[in-house]
Amino acid sequence: MKAMILAAGRGERMMPLTAHTPKPMLLVKGKPLIQHHIENLALAGIKEFVINHAWCGDKIIQYLGDGSSLGVNITYSDESNGALETAGGIIKALPLLVNMAKPLADNNETFLVVNGDVFCSVDLTKLPSLNEKEQACLWLTKNPEHNPSGDFRLIDGYIENKLASLPHDITLTFSGIALYKACFFSSCQPDEKHLALGPLLKQSAEQRLLKGIVLNEPWVDVGTPERLANVNL
Prior knowledge:
By secondary structure, the protein is an alpha/beta fold. The chain has one domain: Alpha-Beta Complex (Spore Coat Polysaccharide Biosynthesis Protein SpsA, Chain A), CATH 3.90.550.10. 21% of the residues lie in helices and 26% in strands. The chain has helices at residues 33-43, 57-64, 86-97, 197-206, 225-231, and strands at 2-7, 27-28, 31-32, 48-53, 73-78, 110-115, 118-119, 136-141, 152-155, 158-161, 173-181, 210-214, 220-221. Strands 5-4-1-6-11-8-12 form a 7-stranded mixed sheet. A two-stranded antiparallel sheet has the order 2-3. Strands 7-13 form a two-stranded antiparallel ribbon. The model has no long low-confidence stretch (mean pLDDT 92).
């Protein structure tokens, strides 16, 4: 099992803290946010990592190197010519994550993806299994103040798109942590790099292809200086 950490974002809302530093390198509890992810995943037995980078990506590489200092192996997906959208970044990195010898539509290899700008020590020691139809499993969390209407509903273990008429207390927010089969991305063209993940998730939710798990652990989207300060209290 490999894990990809998404670390190529510009971090505009974090300015001026990200003027010369990539957001995943900001310190949380005394160490870079991205290091928390690597250490937590390593505790779950995951040792192979792919990290995409763009803005000030050299600082991520300089700090983490090949990952040996943390007992893992890190490969990098370079987006320094222009950061891609979330799904585009994953598509570009697919050859580093799975065996691409077989057609993508038939490729059931799985890998984890974690947003580099969230903070959560989720227990990933027992990953969910996906049946033949299921293409991904998303970890969901209670709606934070900055996303009160949520992203999805969770019904009988499957993710469904929210309805505008639903009260907010029965919707949940995507945590940025997910387990994907490679075939989840088979509808995308190999050169379709500037592609957001949200529309793909909504399309799959309509077809009931997504499992969902509710996080029990505290979760923070470290997206603004104020949230970073709060998580460091």
